[in-house]
Amino acid sequence: YAKGARERGEDIKLAVALDAVGFTDPRPHAQRLPQGLTTLAPDLARKVEKRDFRADFIALVHDPNSAPFTSAFEKEAGAVGLELGDLEVSRLEQLVMNDVMRADHASFWLQGYPGVLLSDSGEFRNPGYHCWNAVDSPDTLDYGFLAKVTSATSAMVASALRGEEKAVDD
């Protein structure tokens, strides 16, 4: 779709991919990190480590072009008490960080459109992710957490729809 949109000259303000967004586990050491994240995103890795590897945050993975919209997400996340793992990925980092290129936002990045991936980090915290090692069913989701993710996502999408392409003030 993204390639066709680029060929048609479509003006896509922001692509948002939600991929595994509802599983949390507040116990220490429930969160694992993708290989290489400590080297490529040391600030994020330190933040997760400082929080004792608790799996209770949403990852906001984005390219530099989407930063004007992610500020609205960050502001709303703070207002509703949603823990955030923010990872801005440059074009160069996209080439070496395979895990950030696995979801639907990646095709938009490759076509030069701003894009965001929201994820609870799937297999790096959820033993039932794609039913690999446990049951992946609705009763394993944290609906309060999902409500916060929905609220922050709505703020970001509203910002894009309003054409707010400058950073949102605090």
Compact description:
With 170 residues, this protein is α/β, with parallel strands linked by helices. The protein has helices at residues 2-7, 37-40, 42-50, 67-80, 91-96, 105-110, 143-161; strands at residues 15-18, 58-62, 84-88, 115-119.
**Helix-strand pattern:** HEHHEHEHHEH
Largest sheet, described in full?
4 strands, mixed
- In helices, the fraction of residues equals 25-40%
Question: Distance N terminus to C terminus?
Answer: 35 Å
Structural class: alpha/beta
For the biggest β-sheet, the strand order reads 1-4-2-3
Provide the β-strand percentage band.
5-15%
Number of strands: 4
What is the assembly state of the chains in this entry?
Answer: single chain
Description:
By secondary structure, the protein is α/β, with parallel strands linked by helices. Helices cover 38% and strands 11% of the residues. The chain has seven helices and four strands, in the order αβααβαβααβα. It has helices at 2-7, 37-40, 42-50, 67-80, 91-96, 105-110, 143-161, and strands at 15-18, 58-62, 84-88, 115-119. It has a four-stranded mixed beta sheet. α4 links the parallel β2 and β3. α4 (67-80) runs antiparallel to α7 (143-161). It is globular. The chain starts with a helix and ends in a 9-residue tail after the last helix.
